[in-house]
Write a sequence for this structure.
């Protein structure tokens, strides 16, 4: 089967579009110029990712999920558009989707590590947000500005509704927070330096989440922002995107 034929098969199977992120080094964590940096984003440290990897251009959508799993997780019936990110999905349900997609397509899909997620989000930048030190309503889906004024749609929106970053990846900031593979740790002391998921130790049955969501302020959409969710969380602002080691 040719590469084009393989690509067509993957499209029929609703494999989310992937973007290749090159191997290399970057500084992970909060930057000095960011007034909202807190202890969970420190210490800033160098990460050397010695492998290229692919990450989805968009979060997994309701259409992607239905193609693999059939019925949507409870709560997604509120969203009629198949291009909306799937939400209200627990960590174990995410793993089930990844297993099904991997078996169907024949590739080993997984969640990105926190380091891979931030590397893909920054796309070679070192600013507060990937493109600048400030964020406008035209840049991402968030609800409030830093003064509490309602400036966004105040709801979930279709994936890809906002501009991509320099790597061609959409919605890493805003729309939905995203599960990562990492167990939650309250800072980066002794964090892996090779980009691997940090799954030893940490808060039991809790995973790091990234990106901020439609109901947040810009400070939560910063490239270094991180928080956690219990693995059984089923939230209307939490989804995920897939990754693949190349």
């Amino acid at each position: 089967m040719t590469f084009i034929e393989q690509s067509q098969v993957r499209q029929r199977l609703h494999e989310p579009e992937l973007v290749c992120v090159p191997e290399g080094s970057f500084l992970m964590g909060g930057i000095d110029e960011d007034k909202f940096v807190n202890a969970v984003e420190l210490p800033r440290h160098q990460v050397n990712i010695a492998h290229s990897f692919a990450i989805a251009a968009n979060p997994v959508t309701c259409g992607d999920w239905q193609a693999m799993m059939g019925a949507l997780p409870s709560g997604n019936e509120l969203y009629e558009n198949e291009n909306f990110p799937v939400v209200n999905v627990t960590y174990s349900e995410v793993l089930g989707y990844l297993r099904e997609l991997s078996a169907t397509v024949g590739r080993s899909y997984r969640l990105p590590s926190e380091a891979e997620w931030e590397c893909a989000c920054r796309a070679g930048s070192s600013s507060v947000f990937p493109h600048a030190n400030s964020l406008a309503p035209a840049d991402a889906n968030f609800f409030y500005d830093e003064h509490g004024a309602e400036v966004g749609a105040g709801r979930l929106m279709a994936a890809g509704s906002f501009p991509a970053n320099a790597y061609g990846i959409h919605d890493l900031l805003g729309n939905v927070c995203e599960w990562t593979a990492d167990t939650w740790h309250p800072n980066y002391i002794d964090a892996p330096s090779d980009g691997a998921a940090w799954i030893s130790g940490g808060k039991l049955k809790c995973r790091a989440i990234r990106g901020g969501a439609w109901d947040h302020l810009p400070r939560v959409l910063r490239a270094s922002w991180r928080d956690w969710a219990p693995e059984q969380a089923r939230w209307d602002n939490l989804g995920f995107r897939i990754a693949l080691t190349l």
Summary: Residues 1-5 have pLDDT under 50 and may be disordered. The first strand starts at residue 18 and ends at 21. The domain at 3-245 is CATH 3.90.1580.10 (paralog of FGE (formylglycine-generating enzyme)). Strands lie at 18-21, 24-28, 45-49, 53-56, 109-110, 177-184, 203-210, 226-230, 238-239, 243-245.
